[in-house]
Amino acid sequence: MKARADDRRDELRPVAQNRKARHRYHILETVEAGLALTGNEVKSVRLGRISLDEAYARPRGEEVFLVGCHIAPYEKTGFDRPDPVRDRKLLMKRSEIRRYARRVAERGLTLVPLKVYFKGPWAKVELALARGKGYADRREELRARSEARDMARALSRRSGRTGWRM
Predict the structure, then answer these.
(1) What is the pLDDT of residues 131-144, one digit of tens each?
(2) Cβ density class 2-25: b for 16+ within 10 Å, e for less
(3) Degrees to nearest 5, angle at CA 143 with 137 and 148
(4) Are 104 and 6 in contact (CB under 8 A)?
(5) What are 27-67's pLDDT values in tens digits?
């Protein structure tokens, strides 16, 4: 049986997003990494019971771990309940690990998770190599967005568009 377009679109639907990341950081580049989970954690993540708000990735030796990610325990499990905020291993190619570990160590950058999603049966994390924004940067961004919105509003009034089509 062939997979329909609806099924494929459903596969990449984000289970969780870190909405504050794009506000707090300048995103330089992104990379996809696998997420090593236990069976109970997979069920909980599929239900959307995951939080990326305070999470970040940290290289340790030849491995990378997701730190501070909260996955709520799955209620219907029996005895095996892992710690909800334990460090979880990220699955990446060794060359990628070395490259990002070097950049994080040298230039003061950080790896921030942007979203968690399922690609087929595998849980994936989209990581961003990011640099923190200062308070002034955030205000400048808000000001620029507000000015662009005002300009678009003024242009639409001037062109006489009412929003109605005939």
Answers:
(1) 888 888 888 888 99
(2) eeeeeeeeeeeeebbebeebbeeb
(3) 125
(4) no
(5) 999 999 999 988 888 888 898 899 998 899 999 989 999 99
**Tokens 């377009």, residue located:** 5
pTM score: 0.74
Nearest to 50 by CA among 10, 90, 26, 86: 86
Return the SS3 of 33.
strand
Q: Could you tell me where the beta strands, DSSP code E, fall in the chain?
A: 14-17, 25-35, 50-51, 56-60, 63-67, 70-71, 88-91, 110-119, 122-132
Q: Which CATH number fits domain 5-133: 2.40.280.10, 3.40.50.150, 3.30.420.40, 1.10.10.10?
A: 2.40.280.10
Residue in this structure with the two tokens 């909405």, named with its chain if needed: 19
CA-to-CA separations, 79 to 40, 48, 73, 75, 149, in angstroms, rounded: 11, 22, 11, 11, 54
